[in-house]
């Protein structure tokens, strides 16, 4: 997935969306990441393969070098665009989906080199979707049509990613890092669900919010003694 012509907050929101759906490679043109926007990813960016480019030309040249077919999202439907909701879409083996911003979509430079335009049909008064919602709908449709694309990496790429992830997961504990790295030759089976289980899942609240709730409850008890 390629992001260009978008602001920092939209970029980070799309990164989080892409990661949760299983996109591994994200390319960003002219990244502009603020510390505040960085929090939107909730740390998911650490487990993605993110490349950055300073110009559209650099990105386009890299896409062509890898032999990528370029599909650019456009909010306007015309005779050359695919409504990205139909199940008969033929997905190229090496595809790059390019997203721009909400109001102007992709730049003319990237639209000009696209092999195909795609769009999501809209039926309301609003003339566009937020970028992260566009990304979610496009990615979900993509994997619905072509489920075998999820995890479609070479064995070497998988091994390299596992090693990188294990080192990051165990960065605060040498013992844990060694334990994770021991899985390289015999990886454990993936979990069916990565979310917290049972009560821990239902009761998960951020620490600061939990403290605020606790203070409000104490204040309520003081104001309303039984």
What does this protein look like?
This protein is of the alpha/beta class. It has a domain at 2-149: 3-Layer(aba) Sandwich (Alpha/beta knot). The chain has helices at residues 8-21, 35-38, 56-65, 108-113, 131-145, 155-169, 174-181, 198-202, 207-223; strands spanning 2-3, 25-29, 49-53, 69-73, 81-83, 95-99, 116-119. It has a seven-stranded parallel sheet with strand order 3-2-1-6-4-7-5, with helices on both faces. α1 runs parallel beside α5 (131-145) and α6 runs antiparallel to α7 (174-181). The protein is globular. The termini are far apart. 22% of the residues are buried. The model is unreliable at 36-40 (pLDDT under 50).
